[in-house]
Specification:
about 220 residues, eight-stranded antiparallel β-sheet, three-stranded antiparallel β-sheet, 7 helices, 13 strands, about 30% helix, about 30% strand
């Protein structure tokens, strides 16, 4: 099956939501979010059978290029979900989650204009104190624990921090950023599995301490 990268967002909300709106249909084919050094871009990648692609929101990524790229790793530290998450869901996504979890889909919403689609309702999930996603708990993502990762909103599925990565079965940590021609280029260092786990645990402890302080009455 070919690899397809979701086209790069432009900063225009109508178009960027269009990309997500179309990509949500391909969740089962999500392969990972990658930093592609040749393109200097962080892009969600899907492995989709050629005859399944119905939307012009993807571009083919050669397998050889993907092998030389860094695949982001979510270590479930909670930082993206607990603080200013900005999480949101399209209406059909929220209805599926609500049906699975037995939670009424009563969330703040707004109607947005999506390029080539029209008016669509988007539901805000980062409604808890400090912008915490409603579905995030100290034990992790409620949607992921109670259902399947494919139920997660597309924005949550493809969004990753760029700190932890893997490439060619080796583990990497982002240790800095360098400026090249006005662009911010991440710098990764290979680490052993033991060092990787120690760094992950350190990050988790920091996030959990901060989360506990912010959650305190």
């Amino acid at each position: 099956m070919p690899y397809y990268a979701l086209l790069k967002p432009t900063g225009d909300e109508s178009y960027d939501l269009f990309l997500l709106y179309k990509a949500r249909k391909y969740k089962s084919f999500f392969h990972g979010t990658y930093y592609l050094p040749k393109r200097r871009e962080l892009r969600p990648v899907f492995r989709i059978p050629h005859d399944e692609v119905r939307d012009d929101v993807f571009e083919v990524i050669p397998a050889a290029e993907l092998e030389d790229s860094y695949r982001m790793i979510c270590v479930a530290c909670g930082r993206c979900c607990a603080f200013n998450s900005g999480a949101f869901a399209f209406e059909d996504e929220l209805l599926r989650i609500s049906e699975k979890l037995g939670i009424p889909p009563a969330f703040p919403s707004r109607e947005v204009s999506i390029y080539r689609v029209g008016r669509v309702r988007v539901y805000e999930l980062g409604v808890e104190r400090g912008g915490k996603c409603y579905f995030y708990t100290a034990d992790g993502c409620l949607v992921e624990r109670r259902g399947t990762w494919r139920l997660k909103p597309i924005i949550c599925l493809i969004h990753h921090c760029s700190i932890f990565a893997e490439r060619r079965n080796k583990l990497y940590i982002k240790v800095g950023v360098k400026r090249v021609g006005g662009e911010a280029i991440p710098v990764y260092r290979e680490v052993s599995p033991d060092e990787f786990e120690k760094i992950v645990e350190t990050v988790k402890r920091r996030v959990h301490r901060l989360y506990a302080r912010r959650s305190a009455p």
